[in-house]
Amino acid sequence: MATFLYKIGRLTFRRRRLVALVWVALLALAGFGAASASTATSSSFSIPGTEAQKAFDLLEERFPGGSADGATARVVFKAPDGQKVTDAGNKAEVGKIVAELKSGSDQIASVADPFKANAVSENGSTAYISVSYEVSSMELTDGTREALEDAGEAARSSGMTVEIGGDALQVMPHTGATEVIGIAVAAVVLVITFGSLIAAGLPLLTALVGVGIGVSLITALANVLDLGSTTSTLAMMIGLAVGIDYALFIVSRYRAELAEGREREEAAGRAVGTAGSAVVFAGLTVVIALVGLAVVNIPMLTKMGAAAAGTVAIAVLIALTLVPALLGFAGKRVMGRKARKAAEAENKPDAKPNMGTRWARFVLRKPVWVLLAGVIGLGVIAVPAASLEMGLPDDGSQPKSTTQRQAYDLLSDGFGPGFNGPLLVVVDTKGSADGKTAVDQVSQEIEGIGHVAAVTPATFNKAGDAATITVIPEDRPSSVQTEDVVHAIRDAGADVRSETGAVVLVTGATAMNIDFSEKMNDALLPYLALVVGLAFLLLMVVFRSLLVPLKAALGFLLSVVAALGAVVAVFQWGWLGSLFGVEQTGPIMSMMPIFMVGVVFGLAMDYEVFLVTRMREAYVHGETPGQAVVTGFRHGARVVSAAAVIMIAVFAGFIGSSESMIKMIGFSLAIAVFFDAFVVRMAIVPAVLALLGERAWWLPRRLDRVLPNVDVEGEGLRANLADGGPAGGERELSRV
């Protein structure tokens, strides 16, 4: 592979104008497609195989035209102290709002008058108007939202408290200024690392080109492929991070080759052949991990992973082609005068050891203490992960300053906590001899279940072969008691089916959230085993060792669990929450842990490959295991540290997002990269290698013969080039 990539590097360097033109054309075409595409809507949310999804599908079939997936809103009124909403003046004001809403938009499907729909609390202090729309929340026009927001202004002026809940006010998320700050930090790190504005700007430019193409393609295909509104943001987050890092490794190796006196084209070829091999492997691990999210069998998560994986693939291609092409345009300016002097000084035999060398020697002197400090430190941070609670957000998780949260609290106070999470029971009576009797039995069974506050009368469809029953739990939607109610209804439904033949299914937002969280819980450990097993096999091929990949996989597990512990402490317990803009604590997003595992797996393997390949290269060339560790850190620690800081800065930039999932994923990826790069790879890895010595690189002979040789270190390339000067093999390759 290294030899093939060497040819690619030299070819793109020579044909740099054509290569640059092709990438600019691709960016322009993708941008034109994005500009021509209609605005992306929210992705359709489905959980195949769950009872809640089966019930939802049955509703679509038996109750056509019901706008089951349409947006909803609740306009909640609370009368002033000492008054009731049923008082003549207040009742008249509510009636005006009902009339305004009905005529306010042609997207409205229905508006329920609270005095006719029994939507007034027992003490008469609170009432609500239910509004249903024919389209999803992301398809609502600005005029429709404005009509909803303006509807309560007149009532507020009369003295009543008016708040609006539901997903009708949901808007596209924004990331805020912190995203730009993250990119600015990355630029500063690159300037410090390279000491040259040209060399620093090149990774940023190529990463932005890759992200521009990836995000534009996602935008252009969003409606065709039913991609959610957050997909492009996640792709941008990951694409920026890996795009900068991959280009950083190529440019860094190119400068090292120049410092050794090689011609520019030859340096570009060798940089792509060596560092490019690691980029391909690292990018492949990220892509496999993201595409592997398909095993969870949740379409939304599968599409998010595939879109992000596509952006990573583009970043790899750009690193292998556009980066060497731009290096050709940059000329010798990629190596500033100070950088050249520093490189010459570093290559002298009596040169002062750099920071990486000094740190590696310290670890070799105190391997046990460094190992214990790293493992115990991450272990302590991981403790909160034992209290991980997963769920999906509702209006109760919104900041207290929002009208959605205040409407949620008003409904809880007036009607009970469970009123914000009603359960919808769907009864399919096609297989029952007497449908009405079966439905009555279902209602009676549900009324006898604990923690059920109310059961509404059944509503049959026109054909009379299906009915819906609304169940109000006593407790809040995300509580354990409400989850128990859902399972109790399903257990009772199984008994009813055996007795009458009627099928009982439970759905609604609360039931969907419960099923989604349970599915993600069930998938987390198998997916974790999959990626850890994959990491072990891939690293065994790369490093031709058993213990090195085992150490890498265990280190990855440690950093992931520690990151989960930090997420729980901040977002669930509220520790330092204000520092990260967390206004409301609550359960951790159900999809966050598994998505984090997929992304961090790939990124962790990046640092493992870039750092340890240098160690193995030194070891196979005759250095002792300890010397090999020092050599690996002397050449790789500075670049890996810079790459990690850049990635942390980019991910942390998304913590300012208004979307809670983006905020949480940005924090989790940033903290996971910090733990993995600076604690696991920089401390635990050299400590373990120091303790293992020669045994770290042991591989059974039979296995050595079976495993393919991918030549990530470029040993085959150096043999072909007769490293040390232009040989016949080098001249032959240069003609390709």
Structure notes:
It is found in: Cell membrane. The chain crosses the membrane at residues 180-200, 207-225, 231-251, 272-296, 308-331, 368-388, 524-543, 555-576, 588-607, 639-658, 664-692. Belongs to the resistance-nodulation-cell division (RND) (TC 2.A.6) family. MmpL subfamily. Residues 204-329 form the SSD domain. InterPro entries: Acrflvin-R, MMPL_dom, Mycobact_MmpL, SSD. With 736 residues, this protein is an alpha+beta fold. The chain folds into four domains: 1-36 and 181-352, Up-down Bundle (Multidrug efflux transporter AcrB transmembrane fold); 72-169, Multidrug efflux transporter AcrB pore domain like (Alpha-Beta Plaits, 2-Layer Sandwich); 354-403 and 525-699, Multidrug efflux transporter AcrB transmembrane fold (Up-down Bundle), CATH 1.20.1640; 404-513, Alpha-Beta Plaits (2-Layer Sandwich). Helix content is 64%, strand content 7%. It has 25 helices and eleven strands. It has helices at 2-14, 16-36, 51-62, 88-104, 142-150, 153-157, 178-194, 197-225, 231-259, 264-291, 299-330, 337-347, 355-365, 367-382, 403-415, 435-447, 480-500, 509-543, 547-572, 592-620, 625-652, 660-692, 701-706, 715-721, 728-734, and strands at residues 72-78, 108-112, 126-133, 161-165, 390-391, 423-428, 452-455, 459-460, 466-473, 503-507, 588-589. The strands form three sheets. Strands 6, 7, 8, 9 and 10 form a five-stranded antiparallel sheet that branches. The longest helix is centred in the C-terminal third of the chain and has 35 residues, at 509-543. The protein is elongated. Residues 723-736 have low confidence and may be disordered.
